């Protein structure tokens, strides 16, 4: 029996390749009995005479009542010298595998399997299995390029294993060569292939790709992967995974980061106290008091604040004092926004947003852009206001206009709007 043991787990695996513990029982044409040669005539039509003459004494070493596998192992190099055709190669490979099995020599096991594959005489229904075993042995030998080739051949032949995800394992061969780009590209190609075939990509492929973008600080690619992950698996956990990675890989200015935190709040992806605190500080409770009140309430619900928490008490005191002033003075702010410059209009839009008056906020943001406000900022907030109103199709279009440093935020908001559609 050929056994490929579980490899040592590494950081690059991160638990995503499940159960790479293989108990391999080769059948059909590679069992011990099929290796025996009893007469020259038995192989006269298939194997060369010189090979049969060299093969018989080696076969007898493994067929006797007391097999001598070490002696057979020592005789194999001379046997290889007599190979003249592919039938010889097939039989020699079979014998090599048997000797390798019984001497626990993985290199010999691999060589035997490779020889049989090279002969072209392996049954079509066994090609995937044989290549999988070759890939497994090459992987254990840290010959990752060879492992990748064999595992891909197994995958192309339709081979599946209940305990091993071949796509993940092949991607890991790139990672173990310190080729993060290769791993990511392979995973994304697999995702695209599944989509083209009309099937849903495996969630683990996307999560592994996202982890790779984080580990190797592939900022742009993180957005691509997040979009694909959320398209197929828009779960709360995946919103957390994606938005935390986007936040970690980008240095957004407070005004932009606020809009990312708003999306995190919308998708229940705010899970850590530092996120709530930074969200509040970026907003400023003296300016966006009503929104800060909502965040404080969400923080208590999430368990990151208690009502006697000194930080909570201080911020709530500021917000509670300011919030009524914003509500009572909103019409004056709107008037200032209409008559003033772009900053006045933008400020009025922000306060309207804080109050949950998203339709009027959208109008003020449009006015701010007409007055010369940054189009990327204005369009981001117009899109958010549209999404808050449930106008998701319009929001997706608006987010598509956002460029530059705010683009990752807009694309994540667009993914949210698409998922709500």
Key terms for this structure?
2 strands; 421 residues; mainly alpha; elongated
What can you see in these coordinates?
The structure is a single chain. Strands 1-2 form a two-stranded antiparallel sheet. It has 421 residues and is an all-alpha fold. It is elongated. Helix content is 67%, strand content 1%. The chain has 20 helices and 2 strands. Helix 19 (392-399) packs antiparallel against helix 20.
What would you call the structural class? mainly alpha
Order of helices and strands: EEHHHHHHHHHHHHHHHHHHHH
Beta-strand content bin: under 5%
Largest sheet composition: 2 strands, antiparallel
Strand order across the biggest sheet? 1-2
Q: Percent range for helical residues?
A: 55-70%
Assembly context of the chains: single chain
Shape: elongated
Helix count, per DSSP?
20
How many DSSP E strands? 2
Low-confidence stretches: 1-44
Average pLDDT across residues? 89
N-to-C CA distance? 54 Å
What would you report as the Rg, rounded to the nearest angstrom? Answer: 32 Å
Write the layout of secondary structure elements.
Layout: E1 2-4, E2 22-24, H1 49-63, H2 69-80, H3 86-103, H4 106-119, H5 127-140, H6 144-156, H7 166-175, H8 180-196, H9 203-215, H10 219-232, H11 236-249, H12 254-266, H13 273-283, H14 289-302, H15 310-339, H16 342-354, H17 358-370, H18 375-388, H19 392-399, H20 407-420
Helix pairs in contact: 1-2, 1-3, 2-3, 3-4, 4-5, 5-6, 6-7, 7-8, 8-9, 9-10, 9-11, 10-11, 10-20, 11-12, 12-13, 12-20, 13-14, 14-15, 15-16, 16-17, 17-18, 18-19, 18-20, 19-20
